[in-house]
Fold:
Amino acid sequence: MLDAAAGATSGGGTSTAPFCVPGAQVGCACPGAAAGVQVCASDGTHLMPCQCEAGSGGASSSASSTSSSSTSASSVSASSSAASSASSSSTSSSSSGGCGNPFNDPSNCGSCGHSCQGGACQGGVCQSFLLSAASCTDIALSGGYVYYAGNQLGRVSVGGGAPQTLVPTQTTSLAVDSANVYFALNTNPPAVGKVPVGGGTMTTLATNAGGVGPVAIDDTTVFWGQGGTIVSVPKAGGKVTVLLTVPSDPGRFRVDGTSLYWVDTNLPEVAKIPKTGGAKTTLFSGAVDYGLDVAGGTLYFQSSSVGGVVSLPIAGGTPTFLAPATDVRGISALSPAIFFTDMPPSMTGVVAQAPIGGGNRVTLATTAGGAVYTVAADATSVYYCGDAGVFKLAL
Structure:
């Protein structure tokens, strides 16, 4: 968990595994420095209250008792030698592996071998941590790095370390391949450019006095929106081709093998065209927000007309409701889950996940005092960024 100086971010990841193994025990501190025991509930979701010796003043457990899975620090503190002794003599991890205290060990958080990958472990739940303090509007993962656009274009290792500035000028969106980062540059005039992934000389691919919108790429081409048009240019540079004239600039682009997809928050709609240009196909008409992703022949976006995050076949059809959401700026689909940012009326930025086929929404992290704009995920972690910087949270 980060303090206010690091972006006032708090929150933890939720593993797909149970919080603890039913019947497993951990030590806890009782009044008078006595040792007690907490037992994992039968459903594996939380610990029962601390059981203390008679007369110690501690609570006794009962079948109907419930306890928060976010155990207080005093329940797992190692400052009491009696509690530490009890913890080591009983099962010291939720998987009965004796691999450390699962409630504060970042290498065995919640279960043996579950690493927080640089974050803290509190109450058996990994906490998010700051990778870069740069204000950020877009991120992408590639080659072991998180690339981010915002008040600068930069990158930082997914394992943490010193961030590297690639372009010191304000950028608004980006896309990355193995060789270059492609981005929208907020200069006068606005431009689309590229720079080697490890840093180097920036190349301007196009300029447009009317502004440059979101950027997307495929193997050979860069796509973006500008001044009421959707355009493309070869990655190597060359002629800018107008693919489609649109009444308003798109919100976010995604590309697959055949088509370019985007959300238009003004019409509002979700639409596509062939990557080489052609007639527009409207896939969904209704209130939409900026977040969009495509994976496995399915589009993922948020619509207040439907009530939250939805999925839709790339051929169109009826959207499927997946999870409630209010204001989604970014979505990342990585089976078996979808990850998304949300900005509820409280103006507290939220990072959440839900099953990719729909189900319970789980809040992973919250940020106070600033928006969260976009999210990306890999097999072990979720990364998100906003006004307070770029963050990582182990799943």
